[in-house]
Design brief:
single chain; about 260 residues; alpha/beta; Rossmann fold; seven-stranded parallel sheet; 8 helices; about 15% strand; globular; binds nicotinamide-adenine-dinucleotide
Length: about 260
């Protein structure tokens, strides 16, 4: 699938995996819509790569429609990469046997709302717009890449909310691809391992934490680079024969309970 002369939406595009993907897509000739909550970083990146920033909470339908319309106004919308997401770690129960110290249910709902419902919200609205595209010679009208996590398969202690949300993203991949095959839109999913992005915070404590994490990686023994995620995402978009796939990019790590 050709990316040059098309538009692409990258949610969470202002930072980390989304930022690297936005840069790679722009290098491939796509007009990129950086759809994020972070206006300062998002505007700066969009300016640098000749794209457009749209202030967008992926859980807000009107804002997602605004991002989709902005993309289609720039060029036919053929690509979506969903990177918007949040991490959260809390154990299911507290230590004191009190109901009040069980996992906060609103926090659980919030993680599901952003990571899972938000991802699906973007898919359903972007694919609706893609359905009006003139197809390429393969009948292709677009492609979607969603971002889950290895935590969908090897969730650690404290990751019930996060792993539930990412397991949902993996789970929707096949039925989404089946639904969208009717309009010639492919859907794939990436499960990143430990990739060095601002999601781990910054400063000395965060560098120590990342060094400990890196020691558990099989090979190469380091955290991944966001560009390694981005080139995979762009391959999943542009290679028309990859569909309904969920693929780990994790240098062989299998996360332990903690
Ligand atoms: N970095 C990793 O090691 C890793 C591993 C597995 C999965 N992931 C997943 O990859 C995705 C990107 O992570 P990252 O490491 O680049 O994180 P990041 O924190 O660097 O970037 C996430 C971006 O998403 C945006 N965002 C958050 N909530 C949003 C919302 N409701 N609407 C729109 N934008 C929103 C943030 O503003 C931020 O710019 C996340 O879904 C994360 O769960 C990351």
């Amino acid at each position: 699938m050709e990316l040059k002369g098309t538009s692409a939406i990258v949610t969470g595009g202002a930072s980390g995996l989304g930022e690297a993907t936005a840069r790679t897509l722009a290098n491939r000739g796509a007009h990129v819509i950086v759809a994020d909550l972070n206006a300062e970083a998002g505007e700066a990146l969009a300016k640098e790569i000749g794209g457009t920033f749209v202030s967008c909470d992926v859980t807000n339908t009107d804002q997602v429609i605004a991002a989709v319309d902005a993309a289609a106004a720039a060029a036919p919308l053929f690509s979506v990469v969903n990177c918007a997401g949040v991490g959260w770690a809390t154990r299911t129960i507290g230590k004191d046997g009190e109901y009040a110290s069980a996992h906060d249910l609103d926090l659980y709902r919030r993680v599901i709302e952003i990571n899972l419902v938000g991802t699906f919200n973007v898919c359903r609205l972007a694919a609706t717009k893609m359905s009006a595209n003139t197809p390429d010679e393969d009948g292709c009208r677009g492609a979607i890449v969603n971002t889950a996590s290895v935590a969908a398969e090897d969730g650690q202690i404290g990751q019930v909310a996060y792993s539930s949300s990412k397991g949902g993203v993996v789970g929707l991949t096949l039925p989404l691809a089946r639904d969208l095959s009717a309009i010639g839109v492919r859907a794939n999913c990436i499960l990143p391992g430990l990739i060095d992005t601002p999601i781990y915070g910054s400063g000395e404590a965060s560098e120590e934490f990342k060094a400990r994490l890196g020691a558990g990686v099989l090979f190469p023994k380091r955290l991944g680079r966001s560009e390694e995620f981005a080139t995979l995402a762009v391959e999943l978009l542009s290679n028309s024969y990859i569909n309904a796939e969920s693929i780990r990019i994790d240098a062989g790590i299998r996360m332990q309970p903690k």
